[in-house]
Structure formats: C-alpha cells, structure tokens
Amino acid sequence: MSKQSRLVTLEEYIIQAQNKFPGATGELSQLLRDIGLAAKIISREVNKAGITNLLGVDGSMNVHGESVKKLDLFADNQLISALDRSQITCMVISEENDGVVRLNSDGGKYIVYLDPLDGSSNIDVNVSIGSIFSVYMKQPRYENALVEVDALQPGIRQVAAGYVLYGSSTILAYTTGLGVSAFTLDPSIGEFILSFDDYKIPEQGTIYSINEGSYNSWQEGLKKYIKYCQQEDINTLRPYTARYIGSMVADLHRTLVKGGIFIYPASKKYPEGKLRLMYECNPLAFIIEQAGGLATDGEKRIMEIVPEAIHQTTPIYIGSPQNVEMVKTFLQAN
Ligand code: P6P
C-alpha cells in the first residue's frame, strides 16, 4: 500500500477512476458519493452521540431479534435517503428492515445491501463501529416489479463494496474490483482524503481474531487450530496474538492492514454462524479478496455461496491467504 503525496479527495478519486472507463455513465460514481455523504453525517452523530440523546435503544427489535439502537435507525435513514436522492438505486436491503425497501425510482439500476451501523452492541461503550455496503446490478427480468429474488445474487456479482469505520478517525474503504482504496475523513474540511491506495493484505499474519467464549461448541478442527495458534514455534512466529473487538468492521480493518485471520464460526448458539452473508460477509470478502486475501465458510468461497434469503447468515474465516488455508486444513482433517 502506498501513502499519498498530495491531497486527493474521495470525489476526485471517484471521478479519476470513472474516467478510466470511457463508457461509464457516472451512476456508480454518484452512488459512491451518496454513501460518502451519508457517512460524513453518520460520523458526526456517532462522534457526539454521548452529548445528544442518540445513545441507547429505541425499543424495537431487528429481524434477528436484536434490540435496535437509536444510532442504527439514524444511520439506516441517512444511507437510504442519500441513495434515494440520486434515483439510481432501485432497492435497498438493510439489517434494520425485515423486507426489501423499494426506492421511488424503480428504474434505478443498482441494488444496495446495507449494514447501516455494524457492531451496535459497542455504541454505548465508545468502541469503534462501522457501516457496510454492497452493490449489485439489477438483473434484467421479464417483469419490472422488483421482488426479493432480484436481490439474491452471489457475492461474485458485486459491482462495488466497502465499509466506513467510525474509530479514532473515520475511514471509508471501498472497491469496485480494481483494488481497495481507503480515505480518512478530515472533519475540518468535511472531506474524505485518500490515505491508502491499493491495499495488499500481508500473505501471512500473526493475529487471530475470534470470540473464544464459544470455544466449547466449536467443531473439533477449529479447536485444534486455535490451539495451534497458541503453541510456541519460533519458526512460524507462534504463539500468535489474540485480538477481538467484537465489531466486525474494526476487526476486519485491522486484519486487512496487519494480516492474520478473523473467524466467526458456527456454534451451538449460531448453528449457521451469526454474521450475515449479504451485508457483512460478502462485501468484506470482496474487499479482502481484492487485497489478496481469502474468505471462506470453512468449505467454499464466501462469494460463491448462492443466497436463499436476504438475511441469511454464514460462518466466516477471512484474512491472509496462508492463515485461511491453514485453518481450512484443520477443519477438513477433523
Ligand atoms: P459476538 C456485532 O454485533 C456483530 O454483528 C459483528 O460486528 C461482530 O463481529 C459480532 O457481531 C460480534 O458477535 O457474538 O462475538 O458478540
């Protein structure tokens, strides 16, 4: 990855990237700018939530039976209204809405999946949280009325994906299939400034990230892999370091930058895994693969899973190629 010598804003970068495609209509560029605008507004509220009354729960439950935080709804509203304004998104699927959200412009060409504010359990304790987005083209069908099946596309069909990390600084990272670029928000000028261009994840890392509280319900191969990470072997730089923030975007961004592996496995409590395929795992898998990493459900590539439901979950093993290949060896041997 390279540091930039002069300031390049997100808007400039998007236009420069679009100019590489003579046939580009500018619509995807506009969609990315829409998300950037919403991210600035969400960042402002996240960074002052303690002062306003946006902390705490709003009393409702989401489709997964999790209590919805006020900031979740604020982020959801900001992202959906930003996408609706430019009339190029026809449907949004979000963690905060049970069904699909059709936008006024059924003529829009893009379908967008959102986790508006991932890691919400950390909101009230001031730990980093994030927004995640995943963009698909609407597939041509004989009828125009958009239904859920139009959104059930495998992750390999994503045209763009990214996240916003509201941490010590606010970072927006995205890919359109030409590598991963990251932008840091400068609140003093209200601009996202290019901070890293073309991230490449380390081939192997020495950090493993998993909630070890569910150890007893893991499959045998995973238990043996975590013990492998903890054994001393100077030649393979073990024991590894354990790091787990409990906010997927934060854990994933650290994995992208420093290498290693993030795991959310199937467990007794979550037999199909906890993390959502379409608006957590697929977009972050697109990012990690574009940076040279791997993402699997333990058997197959995350982005090749054919979705059957918009809110379905999956186990995920994601990160540096050597670490992911190693855990697969343990899973398949037991
Ligand atoms: P656990 C946050 O609620 C989230 O959806 C992800 O951001 C995070 O990786 C995971 O759940 C944490 O789950 O069971 O370890 O608290």
Bound molecules: 6-O-phosphono-alpha-D-fructofuranose
CATH superfamily of the largest domain: Fructose-1,6-Bisphosphatase, subunit A, domain 1
Element pattern in H and E = HHEEHEEEEEEEEEHEHEHEEH
Assign a percent range to the helix content.
25-40%
Q: Which key terms come to mind for this protein?
A:
334 residues; alpha+beta; Fructose-1,6-Bisphosphatase, Chain A, domain 1; D-Maltodextrin-Binding Protein, domain 2; 2 domains; 8-stranded mixed β-sheet; 15 strands; globular
Sequence-ordered SSE layout with sheet pairings:
Elements: H1 10-18, H2 27-46, E1 57-61, E2 67-69, H3 70-85, E3 89-94, E4 101-102, E5 110-118, E6 129-137, E7 160-166, E8 170-175, E9 180-186, E10 191-197, E11 207-209, H4 220-230, E12 241-242, H5 248-258, E13 261-264, H6 277-290, E14 294-296, E15 316-319, H7 321-333
Parallel strand pairs: 3-5, 11-12, 11-13
Antiparallel strand pairs: 1-2, 3-4, 5-6, 6-7, 7-8, 8-9, 9-10, 13-15, 14-15
Characterization of this structure:
By secondary structure, the protein is of the alpha+beta class. The chain has 2 domains: 2-197, Fructose-1,6-Bisphosphatase, subunit A, domain 1 (Fructose-1,6-Bisphosphatase, Chain A, domain 1); 207-332, D-Maltodextrin-Binding Protein, domain 2. The chain is 28% helix and 23% strand. The chain has an 8-stranded mixed beta sheet, with helices on both faces. A 5-stranded mixed beta sheet has the order 12-11-13-15-14. A two-stranded antiparallel sheet has the order 1-2. The longest helix has 20 residues, at 27-46. It is globular. Residues 118-119, 121, 211, 246-248, 251, 264, 274 line the site of 6-O-phosphono-alpha-D-fructofuranose. Residues 118-119, 121, 211, 246-248, 251, 264, 274 line the site of 6-O-phosphono-alpha-D-fructofuranose (P6P).
